[in-house]
Amino acid sequence: MSASLAKHGLLIFGGAVAAFPFYWMFTTSFKEFSEAAKSPPALWPTSWHPENWVDAWQYPHTLWGNAFANTIFIATATTIGVLATSVLAGYAFARMRFRGRDALFAILLVTIFIPGEATLIPQFVLMSRRYLGWYDTYTAQIVPFLSTIFSIFLMRQFFRSVPQELQDAARIDGAGHLRFLWHVALPLVRPALITITLLEFLAAWNAFLWPLIITSRPEIRPIQVQLMQFTAEGGSRYDLLMAGAAFVILPTLVVYLIAQRYFIEGVARTGIRG
Amino acid sequence: MSAPARIAAKRRRVLFEHLEAYAFVAPALILIGLFHILPGIAAFVMSLTRWGVIYERWAWFENYATILDPSGSRFGDFINSLGVTVWYVLLTVPIEMAIALVVAYVLYQGTAGRAAYRVVYFMPYITSVVAAATIFEWIFDANFGFLNYLLGLVGIGSQAWLREPRGVFQMVGSALGASVPDGLAGPSLSLVAVSIFTIWHFIGFQTVIFLAGLTGISRELYEAARIDGADDRQIFARITLPLLSPTIFFVAIIATVGAMRSFTQIYVLTNGGPLDTTRTVPLLIFRTFFERTSVNGIGLGAAMSFIFVLIIIGITLVQFRVLGRRVFYG
User: Fold this and answer.
1) Interface list for A 5-34 with B (CB within 8 A)
2) How far is Cα B116 from Cα B112, in angstroms, rounded to an integer?
3) What dihedral angle (degrees, nearest 10) is formed by the CA atoms of A70, A76, A78, A79?
4) What is the ipTM for the molecules in this complex?
5) Is A261 exposed, middle or buried (CB count within 10 Å of its CB: 0-12, 13-18, 19+)?
6) What is the value of pTM for the model shown?
7) CA of residue A128 relative to chain centroid, distance
């Protein structure tokens, strides 16, 4: 009994540490400024100030509306792109026979080990006017991310588990690969599609370093870059800064709480560490 | 149908199947080739040039010589950053792994509300680093931060946390009245603060991976051990740990490489300061690269990132040798 009590005590303490920053963000975002910067801190707002959220949204030099529209646009475009490219490639690597298949797949395996810190500078140069001329555009924020090795692997893994008998039956009925893929295989790999959609959308939502260096016009920058600029300008207005952080965190938190199983299992299955 | 016609028809079909398959893989392969593989190769080529604002000239291994010349300032910067990086790994990876292992094991044993705990522990990991770092800046605030309030409750004075360049060993030493020489000052308090953030952010990831590994261990083994009269401690040491060792090994490698490559959290929390005490190698590379407006930032940055990649590979190989030997693969 006491062991189980200790166990729960430990887990609750850990959970409180994990959750506290979120709690602190939400409560601070509703506090009056003088109360936010008070010692000792107030654990619960004495008066609620939802207008903080409005003030943060309208803070001088911020373009939250643009930033959200940009992020939603970029995240949607990249997610659709990743789904399309990885379904096709994953299917081909799992279920089609063609010369060079295993060699191409081996190359993909190896390129996982090309580290981001080495490729960042050449990628930046590639976007410059001399080469692609994509600097400071949406294109630069979308096209390089339309395919990821991780999602190809995941799709291949799932398509391999589709029974061969189904494919044989489809072939006898005269269905080609495209029709079999669309009508039979895709519905069977739905969990993988959901996992990729959630993880890719999350990755695009949280994208920071690349948009920071590849854009300069505030109108086309995404929310994470906007939030960083806001933190720089907001100084010590922590009531407003916490509202800004809440803008960025809240949508992902809601989606996560609804679909947490797919997030957690997707990460457990692939071992991707951001 | 005649034999030659049959062969021709078969050829056409094989050709069509091949074209179809290539069409399926082409979009993915072209994108990955252009934006991932090509830059990987280009990184090495660029490290052999003088390239600032514009490409200047071919330079062979000049950049490498500049960085690795022990009398030059670039070498000092690089070694200093490497030291910070090593401290950062030591401050984060072992603690993350120990906590995650304990949490995963307790959750695995089956507690009421296991799913709820899992959701809460994983929450920080899906949160944007920029937004979470903004919250932690507030918690670490020197004047009104929550952490200083907690310290005050146990009678410890306020700290500057993210703005504190002094080494923690030195600070503890001077608090206890002992003087610690500068050489043993240890990582700065600001690096410790960044590490606290990192641990908070990644615990959930490692817990989930450990949990997946634990779930893979056959229940029958536990039952058999129990029938043979083994107690909890023996079961953990003789069954759980050995069978989980491949997972522990995997997490150790992934976490070490991930910590060495960390950028965003450090950039947002301290931008490498104060006094460069949190400037890990990725931040040094980033800064060198953005010096391109002055001299040779791209050439030097590319060379530095290549040296760093070699160091990471070297450390990973050492881990494989040292830890890999202890892994039990059933």
Assistant:
1) 7-8, 10-11, 14-15, 17-19, 21-22, 24-25, 28
2) 9
3) 150
4) 0.92
5) middle
6) 0.93
7) 26
Tokens of A247: 């803008």
| Chain B contact set for A119 (CB, 8 A) | 36, 39-40, 43
First to last CA, chain B: 57
**Omega into B274 within 30° of 0, i.e. cis?**
yes
Identity of the residue in B29, B121, B211 whose CB atom sits nearest the CB atom of A15: B121
The B residues from 130 to 159 touching A (CB cutoff 8 Å) are: 130-132, 134-139, 141, 143-144, 146, 149, 152
What does the block give as tokens for A56? 């943060």
A174 reaches B (C-beta below 8 A): no
Chain B residues touching residue A264 (CB < 8 angstroms): 118-119, 122, 208
Residues in B closer than 8 angstroms to A18, CB to CB, are 120-121, 123-124, 200, 203-204
The Cα–Cα gap between A178 and B20 comes to: 9
Render each residue's pLDDT in chain B as its tens digit; 330 residues: 678 888 999 899 889 989 999 999 999 999 999 999 999 999 999 999 998 888 889 999 999 999 999 998 899 999 999 999 999 999 999 999 999 999 999 888 877 788 899 899 999 999 999 999 999 999 999 988 999 999 999 988 889 999 999 999 999 998 888 888 888 889 999 999 999 999 999 999 999 999 989 988 888 888 898 898 888 888 888 888 899 998 999 899 999 999 999 999 999 999 998 999 999 999 999 998 876 556 788 999 999 999 999 999 999 899 888 887 778 776
Residue B9 burial (CB count, 10 A): 11
- Verify whether the Cβ–Cβ distance A144 to B306 is below 8 Å: no
Residues 29-68 of A with CB under 8 A from B: 36-41
- Round to whole Å and give the CA distance between B189 and B159: 9
Phi/psi of residue B216, nearest 5 degrees? -75, -10
Give the distance from residue A128's alpha carbon to the nearest chain B alpha carbon, in angstroms. Answer: 11
Give A123-153 as a 3 state SS string. HHHHHCCCCCCCCCCHHHHHHHHCCCHHHHH
